[in-house]
Structure formats: structure tokens, C-alpha cells
Design brief:
Layout: E1 3-7, E2 13-18, H1 30-43, H2 103-119, E3 123-126, H3 136-146, E4 152-156, H4 161-167, E5 173-177, H5 183-188, E6 191-195, H6 196-208
Parallel strand pairs: 1-3, 3-6, 4-5, 4-6
Antiparallel strand pairs: 1-2
Helix pairs in contact: 3-4
Length: 212
């Protein structure tokens, strides 16, 4: 069962937290991780790139000049792609870039990404630290005292809105509610900082079978 340090606001180790063994997977499959990360990033693409084809551009469909006798190549509509102001040949159209990845594969990739950070010794749990109101200064001081390498992924509980607002303005950090974090967030980070509420939420998911 992997253990991670519990630290206080001053960065001092005040205990250990034993992660559920089912949350981590020691054997790393780089290809599987790549598959899931690419799928997640593709799912965030807007897919709104578009251009008009010859049927969509505004303009006349009349023949531009007579067929013979001008010495020019014959031409019909002014909306064809080779004419200035004409449509685009095979234009991009709005589309979804999302790809399907099986749930079991996503769970496996999550375990690998988390295990990589745990093995590297760059995961901490903030012990008994609550934010009554947002304070970026306090959040920056906490991160400085952890001595963790940037970039840092900070995961907070779903109800810890003040904590999320406090950490999100610190450069080099990515702050998310635990339920919103994706595999690509774990892969992006060099270090990981949990609040106790975030760890509890994660392990409750294991108990309920959503991470298994």
C-alpha cells in the first residue's frame, strides 16, 4: 500500500497517508497513456473550423464569358475554387474530434499516471488546512514551503471553492476539483498536491466501485 506525506501549512511532515492499493498501478504502459491523453485533448477541441465551398459562397452562377473566341480557357461559374473569391475545394467543416476510449482503459491510465507521481515522491496531502475565504498570498506561501517542483497539480474537494480560487492564480499550477481532473492533468504535472477532502473523495470512489 503506497504512502504519501501529510504536511501542514509550513511544509512540515505531520504524518503519512496510505493510499488505496487499487488507485495505483506500478507497470507503466506508455502507449496506453498516450492513447488516453490524446483522446482527452482531442475531446477539448472546439472543431469549429469551417470554410465555404463553391455552393455556399455568394455570387452569380452565370457563365463569365463566351465559350469560344476569347483565347482564354473556358470558364463557367465565378464560384469555382480557382477563381479569386470562389469557394474552397474540400473545405474544413465543423466536426467533433472526440474519440471513444473504454472506461477500463481510462481507469488503467489514471492509475499509471498517479503511480508515476507517487513513485517519484512528488505527491503530498495538505493536512487540516481550510480556506474560509480566497487568499492567493496564503496559497503561494503554502506551495513555496512544500518545495515541490513546478508545474504542480492541486486537487481540492468539490466543495472547497475558496481553496480552488486561492491556488488558481499561482503561476505554474493547475487547480481542479478532484472530480474534474483528467489523466492528461496528472501527466502534465511534475508534482501533485491533494487536500484531505480531495483524497477522501477519491478513495470514496474506490469504495463505491467507480475506480476499480
Amino acid at each position: 500500500m503506497p504512502s504519501i506525506d501529510r504536511i501542514d501549512e509550513n511544509g512540515a511532515v505531520v504524518g503519512q497517508h496510505d493510499l488505496a492499493a487499487s488507485l495505483v498501478q506500478d507497470k507503466i504502459n506508455v502507449g496506453l497513456l498516450h492513447l488516453v491523453v490524446v483522446s482527452e485533448l482531442a475531446g477539448h477541441r472546439q472543431g469549429t473550423a469551417a470554410a465555404k465551398n463553391r455552393h455556399q459562397v455568394a455570387g452569380t452562377g452565370a457563365k463569365q464569358f463566351r465559350q469560344k473566341g476569347t483565347g482564354r480557357a473556358r470558364a463557367g461559374s465565378a464560384k469555382v475554387p480557382q477563381w479569386i473569391g470562389g469557394g474552397v475545394a474540400f473545405p474544413p467543416i465543423p466536426r467533433s474530434y472526440a474519440t471513444k476510449v473504454n472506461k477500463k482503459v481510462k481507469v488503467q491510465a489514471f492509475r499509471m499516471a498517479l503511480a508515476d507521481l507517487v513513485t517519484g515522491g512528488t505527491v503530498r496531502v495538505l493536512a487540516d488546512i481550510g480556506f474560509e475565504e480566497p487568499s492567493t498570498k496564503r496559497a503561494a506561501d503554502i506551495l513555496a514551503k512544500t518545495k515541490l517542483d513546478y508545474p504542480i497539480l492541486v486537487l481540492v474537494g468539490p466543495e472547497e471553492i475558496a481553496a480552488q480560487k486561492s491556488f488558481r492564480n499561482v503561476a505554474g499550477t493547475r487547480v481542479l476539483a478532484i472530480g474534474d481532473a483528467e489523466v492528461q492533468d496528472y501527466v502534465w504535472a511534475k508534482s501533485l498536491l491533494f487536500t484531505e477532502a480531495a483524497v477522501a473523495f477519491l478513495e470514496r470512489g474506490v469504495a463505491e466501485g467507480s475506480v476499480s
